[in-house]
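Q: I'm building a small set of examples for a reading group on sequence design. Run inverse folding on the following structure and report the sequence directly after it, with nothing in between.
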């Protein structure tokens, strides 16, 4: 790595530290577009401070959010209006997930923290017939396509930070304070395993270092 490259990377790190934006929340509206207009029940796994769970409440009669961190679950409860049909539980996934069934299950940037196959099996078993599973995940960069999308995401990341923060330094969002772990599965490995557990699942790479999985249970 050249001295110029190091300086550029350090400058980008300082820029994004001062102007963070939530890459996961960026996909919330896209997730809603994958779902029916009205559903009975929804489960958000790894709900964090409840941003997506509250959005799901506009579509679902009942929403349940699960997260392993009791402190963030308490914060989610504080941020959620008492009249909203949303409840939260602090529990480890996949073993501690409620039995269901659910018409919708969502999981954003969490599944790489879990035993992958067991998590997909748990989601599958808790999804009602006709239900929809939507995962936005993170994979380990390995292939040329991965690296190309990563490079393309860098300038777009700067643009999004400027647009979302109106160019000003801002505090780090609550939803971005949880500890993260680097993914250990590549996208081809994820596709292969996902289609074994969830036949017919649709997966695609996305910008901003994410991939998407959508599966409809028949």
């Amino acid at each position: 790595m050249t001295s110029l490259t190091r300086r550029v990377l350090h400058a980008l790190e300082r820029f994004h530290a001062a102007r963070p934006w939530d890459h996961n929340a960026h996909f919330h509206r896209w997730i809603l577009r994958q779902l029916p207009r009205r559903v009975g029940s929804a489960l958000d796994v790894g709900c964090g401070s409840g941003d997506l769970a509250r959005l799901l409440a506009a579509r679902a009669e009942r929403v349940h959010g699960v997260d392993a961190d009791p402190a963030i679950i308490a914060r989610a409860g504080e941020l959620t209006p008492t009249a909203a049909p949303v409840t939260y539980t602090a529990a480890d996934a996949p073993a501690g997930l409620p039995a269901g069934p659910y018409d919708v299950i969502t999981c954003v940037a969490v599944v790489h923290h879990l035993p992958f196959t067991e998590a997909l099996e748990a989601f599958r078993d808790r999804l009602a017939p006709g239900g929809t599973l939507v995962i936005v995940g993170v994979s380990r960069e390995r292939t040329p396509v991965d690296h190309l999308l990563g490079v393309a995401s860098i300038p777009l990341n700067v643009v999004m930070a400027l647009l979302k923060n109106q160019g000003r330094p801002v505090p780090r969002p609550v939803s971005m304070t949880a500890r993260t772990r680097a993914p250990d599965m590549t996208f081809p490995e994820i596709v292969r395993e996902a289609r074994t557990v969830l036949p017919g699942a649709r997966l695609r790479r996305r910008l901003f270092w994410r991939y998407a999985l959508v599966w409809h249970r028949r």
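Confidence is low (pLDDT under 50) at residues 167-172.
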